[in-house]
């Protein structure tokens, strides 16, 4: 029998062991962070990269690098649950919008790290970028056959990349990358903030890794059971009809644009129409053919932001008089250009795999004006685009075990409240749906909504999180109709 040790076990060492045992397991990959600078951010942040298999079934096959940025918490005693931001699109780079989103989430950043992961196929993570077409002629941009040819050429170039098998760029695989980042950071749980398509990504992350999520904020809910672009036609129409109705109830709008509905009908009835106008970017004059799809595109884009949509009555009035410059220019306002443009290859890889196969079973009715105006692009592209495998469970909405805050803009033309309400009901009692009646697509940047997000995530218990006061949403006014100075002053005597 061995003699037991005689020296006393140090109490401080026991305390240290017990404290370490409560921390997440150390991960060697967590040491890959390095100080770096991100354009648009005033302070130094940390950059990381993980090597991931393109095809998880072949771990030793083609590898891709998934890049991410960490904005460290300001406090020394920070919380262990960072905030992960999931970008929209699909095709937007989370790192490229990090400067704006970090400012929006600055209160959360006091005690929590902010993490921005470039989803595979976007930004710096095996990007699937097509050529920047913003400087192409208007004739090219409005020609469906030209666009189809450009997209086919893009696909050919993308498939030549080392990671060019586009079947492996689904939301499911992307969220497995995101969880690998969580593990690399040794975070036991995370808080998710998803916007637009990022809400679908957040729901998929929560489906695959339910124990890794503490709270979720979904802004502009685009659920996995949504079928784009079919749902967009119905939702675009509802938002546009609401615009026309609001004008008819507003004294200034009625006085300034008394023929708005008739002018709109006149514009559509006169298509196609050959007009001459200046390119919004180059200023060069061009003779183009305005088609129904081109006009609807000019209307649809500003509907995303009510402040821009306020100028639609003027643009429609001018178009009825044969002047389409304003409508065409408004249709290009929100398109990304240069390095900030979305990854078109990732966009079609996601939509063709996750949405288009369910087109025939979709129950959404097309809008009476918008119809199938934007469906043809996807119908043509998805006929030849490589299609990844999507499990049936991906499209299901299951009850949530953690609090989820869903946010919708009442005037949103693509993710209106009907989607958020359906998801909230499916997620169950731990989901709360807040509608900002006079807002468009995305509400986190409006007024008090960033504080609602902060209080929801910062609340110590679930009950407090779900009871956060969001009544300020109802107080936000609708943007007034735009009236040019010449119209406001009236005709000269």
Description:
The chain is α/β, with parallel strands linked by helices. The chain has a domain of 240 residues: Rossmann fold. It is 37% helix and 13% strand. The strands form 2 sheets. Strands 1-2-3-5-4-6-7-10-11 form a 9-stranded mixed β-sheet, with helices on both faces. A two-stranded antiparallel ribbon has the order 8-9. β10, α16 and β11 form a beta-alpha-beta unit. α9 crosses α12 and α10 packs across α13. The protein is globular and about 65 Å long.
The CATH C-level name of the domain at 28-127 and 168-223 and 392-475 is Alpha Beta
Topology pattern, helix = H, strand = E: HEEEEHEHHHEHEHHHEEHHHHHHEHEHHH
Sheet-strand content, in percent, reads: 5-15%
Number of helices: 19
Q: Could you estimate the helical fraction of the residues in percent?
A: 25-40%
CATH topology of the domain at 28-127 and 168-223 and 392-475: Rossmann fold
Radius of gyration: 25 Å
CATH homologous superfamily caption of the domain at 28-127 and 168-223 and 392-475? Alpha/Beta hydrolase fold, catalytic domain
Number of β-strand runs: 11
Q: Can you summarize the main beta sheet? A: 9 strands, mixed
Distance between the termini: 116 Å
Mean pLDDT: 89
> What's the shape?
globular
